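Per your request, structure below.
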């Protein structure tokens, strides 16, 4: 199959998302077009393929359905906590501790660094904790989604003690063994690549700088200005929680904090049980089912706390629970299912393999390999919506190439694949990480996608320069020096570069 045809569904879908702002329609067109191409333009075979794809998702109780179930449960938890007055109480308490807009956003950033177990967990849990705080200071939901997204995948990919770290370490270790490279273990290979992960490191630092210096440009500037007036167009239109009438009189900040703590505890404990209480194996467990169980226990606790307040009617608890869950199912749930179907279809077209062939068949200088793989991993992950798929396709190509040519570039090449894939994953509108970050912030997917992309592209460009400098000099500290200079220039001159403010006329 021609590479253009394999990329066509992704290109059409992304174009439609930008032009129409209708995410569900755009994703639907993308998955139908991908199925049609996959079925060799046979309508019946395309319908069969779509049916099988959908069934594969709704019948998967190990991965897809637990994530979907957790998203739906979050809608119920939020509605019940709102009903009993927990969100309002937490916001009042938090605002008494957090005195300004910058601090409100920095709390989200710090939580993103601390909660580095898994990107899904990070996106959804931090969103629930941060929304009441950032809402009080009129931070747009698009901005909140950007902070959440840029401290989820970019953080967990740097951490060996995370679900991503366990997967990558296992993959690297297997490739080292297959290529008779016994100098390093999988863990050592992962750790040696961390200093070369220029994009994730740059992305995390950029979030801090953007918050600290109030840097706002592109579509983000419009959403932030609108949010300052109290009308945030990036907030989900279907947000049912806003319609919940508070009935509780006894809620405190713990009405919100306690269910979140229980969610975290049950999730981690379930992973430990699955690992048979082996801490070393805990991070290699899938977090999906434990996350669903954690959400279920958190929901039951929220309902119990609501029942303990006699001002809250049982009928109201049932009503808001159902309404909140249905609202999440119709919005985030529908988008997530379509995004999974699109991602699967694009992978079935062999898009990743076709892009990878470009690397294999090209005669590339050793010093340029990190830069080239960084771009290819970014493009592949953006088109397919999956960083893990890009890891699985590109690392088996990149590691043998590095070992056969110049092993000195091995850490940089591994890091380039990881960093490029993270960029594509957290900027692609078909990535589940993008969808879940928007879900956690209760932002529309369209507003999150168009506002985050310009910031991510700046970070991608700065990281690319870092790889160019390393390829030319093989001096990593020089790469960091150049990255630091570029970040300084970005902070110093972003208004001149992005806002294009005209010079003031002379009086």
């Amino acid at each position: 199959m021609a590479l253009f045809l394999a990329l066509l569904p992704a290109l059409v879908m992304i174009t439609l998302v930008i032009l129409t702002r209708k995410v569900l329609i755009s994703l639907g067109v993308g998955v139908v077009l991908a199925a049609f191409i996959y079925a060799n333009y046979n309508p019946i075979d395309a319908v069969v393929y779509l049916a099988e794809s959908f069934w594969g998702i709704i019948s998967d109780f190990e991965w897809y359905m637990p994530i979907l179930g957790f998203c739906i449960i979050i809608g119920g938890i939020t509605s019940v906590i709102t009903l009993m007055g927990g969100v309002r109480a937490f916001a009042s308490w938090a605002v008494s501790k957090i005195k300004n807009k910058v601090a409100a956003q920095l709390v989200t950033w710090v939580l993103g660094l601390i909660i580095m177990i898994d990107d899904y967990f990070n996106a959804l849990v931090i969103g629930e904790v941060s929304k009441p705080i950032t809402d009080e200071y009129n931070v747009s939901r698009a901005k909140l989604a950007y902070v959440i997204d840029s401290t989820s995948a970019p953080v967990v990919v740097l951490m060996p003690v995370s679900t991503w770290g366990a997967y990558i370490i296992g993959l690297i270790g297997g490739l080292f063994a297959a290529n008779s490279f016994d100098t390093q273990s999988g863990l050592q290979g992962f750790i040696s690549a961390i200093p070369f992960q220029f994009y994730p490191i740059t992305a995390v630092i950029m979030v801090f700088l953007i918050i600290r210096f109030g840097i706002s440009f592109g579509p983000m500037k419009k959403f932030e200005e609108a949010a300052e007036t109290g009308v945030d167009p990036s907030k989900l239109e279907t947000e049912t929680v806003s319609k919940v009438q508070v009935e509780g009189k006894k809620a405190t900040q713990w009405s919100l904090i306690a269910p979140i703590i229980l969610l975290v505890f049950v999730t981690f404990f379930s992973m430990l049980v699955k690992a048979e209480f082996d801490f070393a194996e805990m991070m290699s467990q899938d977090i999906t089912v434990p996350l669903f169980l954690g959400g279920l226990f958190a929901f039951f606790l929220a309902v119990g706390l609501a029942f303990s307040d006699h001002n809250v009617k049982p009928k109201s608890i049932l009503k808001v629970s159902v309404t909140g869950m249905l609202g999440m199912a119709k919005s985030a749930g529908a988008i997530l299912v379509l995004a999974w179907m699109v991602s699967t279809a694009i992978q079935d077209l062999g898009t990743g393999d076709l892009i990878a062939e470009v690397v294999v068949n090209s005669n590339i200088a050793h010093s340029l390999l990190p830069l080239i793989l960084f771009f290819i991993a970014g493009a592949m992950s953006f088109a397919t919506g999956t960083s893990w798929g890009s890891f699985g396709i590109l690392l088996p190509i990149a590691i043998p190439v590095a070992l056969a040519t110049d092993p000195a570039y091995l850490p940089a090449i591994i890091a380039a694949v990881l960093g490029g894939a993270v960029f594509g994953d957290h900027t692609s509108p078909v990535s589940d990480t993008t969808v879940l970050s928007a879900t956690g912030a209760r932002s529309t997917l369209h507003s999150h996608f168009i506002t985050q992309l310009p910031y991510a592209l700046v970070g991608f460009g700065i990281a690319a320069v870092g790889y160019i400098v390393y390829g030319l000099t093989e001096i990593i500290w020089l790469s960091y020096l150049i990255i630091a200079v570029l970040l300084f220039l970005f902070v110093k001159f972003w208004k001149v570069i992005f806002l294009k403010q005209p010079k003031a006329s002379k009086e």
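Residues 163 and 283 are 5 Å apart (CA to CA).

Regards,
D.
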